[in-house]
Design brief:
Arc Repressor Mutant, subunit A, mainly alpha
Length: 108
């Protein structure tokens, strides 16, 4: 096998590994977003009066376990206005996630 072919093959392997890592990271982030929404639904946090504090809202300085995507997922859900935050660090879901809402997670 020539050197040029080896270099081209290694470039394709590198691009494939990078693509796979990005797909896995995106999959983990989606799972974390779903977990945050489910957590807020289970705690019935649907309006400012029923807002709850989430223990993973603030990232830890030192972690020995695997990476926790929930703090970053919560930040992204706030940016997309799926979750709303009050001044005291309390969180609640916006109206479209309430039980009986027209589009409760169903794509039309």
């Amino acid at each position: 096998m020539s050197e040029t072919l080896k270099i081209i093959l290694m470039i394709f392997v590198f691009i494939g590994a990078l693509f796979l890592a990005m797909r896995i990271s995106g999959w983990k982030m989606k799972e974390a977003c779903d977990a945050v929404i489910l957590d807020l639904k289970n705690q019935n946090a649907f309006d400012p009066a029923s807002a709850v504090e989430l223990p993973y809202a603030k990232g830890q300085l030192v972690t020995i376990t695997l990476r926790d995507y929930r703090p970053k997922a919560l930040e992204e859900l706030i940016n997309q206005d799926e979750v709303r935050m009050l001044n005291g660090g309390l969180y609640y879901l916006r109206k479209s996630h309430r039980p009986g809402a027209a589009n409760d997670g169903v794509a039309i």
